[in-house]
Design brief:
Layout lengths: L1 H18 L4 H13 L3 H4 L1 H24 L1 H20 L7 H30 L4 H27 L12 H19 L14 H6 L4 H32 L3 H4 L1 H23 L2 H21 L3 H14 L3 H12 L4 H10 L3 H16 L1 H18 L7
Helix pairs in contact: 1-6, 1-7, 1-8, 2-10, 4-5, 4-6, 4-16, 4-17, 5-6, 5-8, 6-16, 7-12, 7-15, 10-12, 10-14, 10-15, 10-16, 10-17, 10-18, 12-14, 13-14, 13-18, 15-16, 17-18
C-alpha cells in the first residue's frame, strides 16, 4: 500500500510538471511576435487565447469529474495537451497562423481540464491535511517546467543544444515526450477515489456557489494571480528590450528569472505554510509584489529590473495555493464544483494580457505594469479574508 501511494504521488507530480507546459506561451508569443512582426496587442492574443478556455471548460470539467472520476479526467487532459504539442511541432507551424491558434487553444483546453481535476486528485491521494502546503509543492514541480521553457527555447534558437532543425521550438518536442511518459505512468497507477454522494450539481448550481463570499473573493484572487503571472512572463522581456536595448534572446532570461524565483517560492512556501499562519505569509507575499510593481514601473537599471522580477516571482508563487485552499476547504462537500470555479479564475490570464497589450501600445511597457498593479492592489485588499485554519 505504501509503495502504491508513493507511485500515486509520483504520477501526480509528473502531471504537475505537465501543467507547467502552459507557461511556454509567454516566451513562445515573443518569438512568434518577432518572426511575424506583430504588434504587442496581436502577440498577446496567444496567451489570452490559451487562458480564454478556462472560462469555458473549468466548470463543465468539475461536472465531468463527478461522472468519470478525477483520474480519468486528468488522463483526458494529458491526451489533449500532447495533441496540442504535436500540432506545434508540425512544419506548418512556422507559416500558418491558423495552426498556431488551434494548437494554443488545445493547450489551453488541456490545461483547463488538468488544473480543474488535478488539484482535487491531490486531496484524494494525500488527504485534506496541509492541503495548501501540498498544492504549493505541486506548484513547485510545475514551476520547474515553467522556468525551463525559456531556457530551452533560447538554447534551441542559439543552437547550443541539438535542435534537429526545430530551432527554438525544440521545447515543444521535449515537452511532448514528457507528456506521453506522464500519461502512461498515471494510467498504470491505481488510485481509489471517494464515491460521489447525492445528485451531481448542475452547471447553474455550480455557478451559484460564487454567491458564497469566500468562494467569490478567492475566485477573483486567482484571476489576479494568473493575470500577474502571465503578464510578467510575457512583459518582463519586453521591458528589458525597451529600457536596456537587449535582444530577444538576451531578454528571454527575464522570464526564466521570474520562474526561478517562483520555483524557489513554491519550494520554500510548502515549508512556511506549515509553520506560519496563512494570512501572515500571504501578507509577506503581497508586500513583495507591491515593491516589484514599483521597480518595474520606474526601473531603468538592470539590477533594479532583475530585483523587481525576482520579487514578483517569489511573491506570486503561493497566492494560487492559498486562495485555492481557502475556497476548497470552505465547502468540502462540493470540492469538484469549487475546483472548477477556481480554475475558471485562470481566465484572468486572458483579461490581463489583452489590457496590457493595449496599454503598452499606448504608453510603453509601463502601461502594462499599471494593469498588473491593479491585480496586486486587489490581493492586498483580499488579505483580510484569509483564514489561518
Amino acid at each position: 500500500m505504501a509503495n502504491s501511494n508513493k507511485l500515486a504521488i509520483l504520477s501526480v507530480m509528473l502531471c504537475f510538471f505537465c501543467m507547467g507546459f502552459v507557461d511556454l506561451v509567454g516566451i513562445a508569443s515573443n518569438y512568434v511576435k518577432e518572426e511575424l512582426q506583430l504588434t504587442d496587442s496581436m502577440a498577446n492574443i496567444f496567451p489570452s487565447l490559451v487562458f480564454f478556455w478556462f472560462l469555458i471548460f473549468s466548470v463543465p470539467t468539475g461536472m465531468l469529474m463527478n461522472k468519470i472520476g478525477r483520474k480519468k479526467t486528468v488522463l483526458l487532459s494529458l491526451v489533449v495537451t500532447v495533441v496540442s504539442l504535436l500540432l506545434l511541432l508540425l512544419p506548418l507551424f512556422g507559416e500558418n497562423f491558423g495552426t498556431m491558434l488551434v494548437a494554443f487553444s488545445l493547450l489551453g483546453i488541456g490545461n483547463a481540464l488538468m488544473q480543474t481535476s488535478l488539484n482535487p486528485l491531490v486531496s484524494t491521494v494525500m488527504g485534506d491535511g496541509n492541503l495548501a502546503s501540498m498544492l504549493t509543492f505541486g506548484q513547485f514541480v510545475k514551476a520547474i517546467a515553467s522556468f525551463s521553457a525559456p531556457y530551452l527555447a533560447m538554447w534551441g534558437a542559439m543552437q547550443v543544444i541539438p535542435e534537429f532543425g526545430l530551432d527554438w521550438r525544440i521545447l515543444f518536442a521535449l515537452f511532448f515526450v514528457i507528456g506521453i511518459v506522464a500519461t502512461l505512468v498515471l494510467w498504470s497507477v491505481p488510485i481509489d477515489e471517494p464515491a460521489i454522494e447525492g445528485k451531481p450539481s448542475t452547471f447553474v448550481e455550480c455557478i451559484k456557489l460564487l454567491g458564497t463570499p469566500i468562494v467569490l473573493l478567492s475566485f477573483l484572487g486567482i484571476m489576479c494571480h494568473v493575470g500577474i503571472d502571465v503578464g510578467t512572463n510575457t512583459t518582463a522581456p519586453k521591458i528589458l528590450m525597451e529600457r536596456l536595448g537587449m535582444t530577444l534572446n538576451e531578454a528571454a532570461f527575464a522570464t526564466s528569472l521570474y520562474f526561478i524565483f517562483r520555483t524557489i517560492g513554491c519550494f520554500t512556501g510548502s515549508f512556511f505554510l506549515r509553520v506560519l499562519p496563512a494570512r501572515t505569509f500571504f501578507v509577506i507575499s503581497v508586500v513583495m509584489m507591491v515593491l516589484s510593481m514599483c521597480g518595474l514601473f520606474v526601473g531603468t537599471e538592470k539590477w533594479v529590473l532583475y530585483t523587481a522580477i525576482a520579487l514578483v516571482g517569489y511573491g506570486n508563487s503561493n497566492i494560487f495555493s492559498i486562495c485555492f485552499a481557502q475556497a476548497l476547504t470552505s465547502m468540502p462537500e462540493k470540492q469538484n464544483e469549487v475546483s472548477g470555479l477556481m480554475i475558471m479564475g485562470l481566465f484572468g490570464g486572458t483579461v490581463f494580457p489583452l489590457l496590457m497589450g493595449v496599454m503598452s501600445d499606448v504608453m510603453g511597457q509601463s502601461g502594462a505594469v499599471l494593469v498588473m498593479a491593479v491585480g496586486v492592489a486587489y490581493l492586498f485588499m483580499f488579505t483580510k479574508n484569509i483564514s489561518n485554519n
